[in-house]
Amino acid sequence: MPFFYYDSYYLILVIPALLIATFAQMKVQSTFKKYAGVMSRQNRTAAEVTRQILNQNGLHNVAIERISGNLTDHYDPKSNVIRLSDSVHDSTSVASIGVAAHEAGHAVQHATGYMPIKLRNTVLPIANIGSSLAFPLIFLGIVLSFEPLISIGILLFSALVLFQLVTLPVEFNASRRAIRTLESNCILEDEELSSAKKVLSAAAMTYVAAALVSAMQLLRLILLSNNRRKR
């Protein structure tokens, strides 16, 4: 029975996690689309709100750029830039403002030395190696019947899972910062805040789902490896 593709562990562990991840992606898209049609009463664009949050935290040097795509928003710490997607940058919707404030939260995390984001950055290089080399090493170990290669591949994949797990508190904290800032600065009102929370909660679930998929894949690899050793 092939190690990677058709096996009972894949059916039992990975496929349900993939279905959850697919649902999470659909949910965030539908939730954003719903509240992208709800305009904030202050009629300020997401880019303007982002600039305000950055300036209030002394981050005048963090630039804001527009990037193509839908929900491709992110903070790039290397370039010190927040990139807001076409659907967010100039929008005055509560959904776009929530997403933009979330990215500003990441910039503040970096500036204040938020510990989980430091840990995530430490794990990132190993996780990048794991994402590219884990499965080739495992496959090579199977072909050569060399168990140490399989173990190294699984260990590298574990680093990717660790990275995704550490990402969760980083994302949750950025969302909490965003909602707290939008409320304390009266940028969004009560009902608008509730809508923005729903958008950010849906987005957070995509990270939870991604971590679940990787964790189930790791468990699958460990179980298959153990089964090989028992033969």
Which bin fits the share of residues in helices? Answer: over 70%
Count of separate structural domains: 1
As an assembly, this protein is: single chain
Strand content: 5-15%
Poorly predicted tracts of residues? 1-5
Provide the spatial order of strands within the biggest beta sheet. 1-3-2
Q: What is the 3D form?
A: elongated
SSE order in H/E notation?
Answer: HHEEEHHHH
Tell me about the largest β-sheet: 3 strands, mixed
Rg calculated over all Cα atoms: 21 Å
End-to-end distance, in Å? 13 Å
Instruction: Average the pLDDT over all residues and give the rounded result.
Output: 93
Structural class: mainly alpha
**Number of beta-strand segments:** 3
How many separate helices? 6
Explained architecture:
The chain is mainly alpha-helical. It has one domain. Helix content is 72%, strand content 6%. It has 6 helices and 3 strands, in the order H-H-E-E-E-H-H-H-H. It has helices at residues 8-35, 46-56, 94-112, 115-143, 147-184, 190-230; strands at residues 63-67, 74-76, 81-85. A 3-stranded mixed β-sheet has the order 1-3-2, covered by helices on one side. Strand 2 and strand 3 form a beta hairpin. Helix 3 (94-112) crosses helix 6 (190-230), helix 4 packs antiparallel against helix 5 and helix 5 runs antiparallel to helix 6. It is elongated, with a radius of gyration of 21 Å. It starts with 7 loop residues before the first helix and ends with a helix. 37% of the residues are buried.
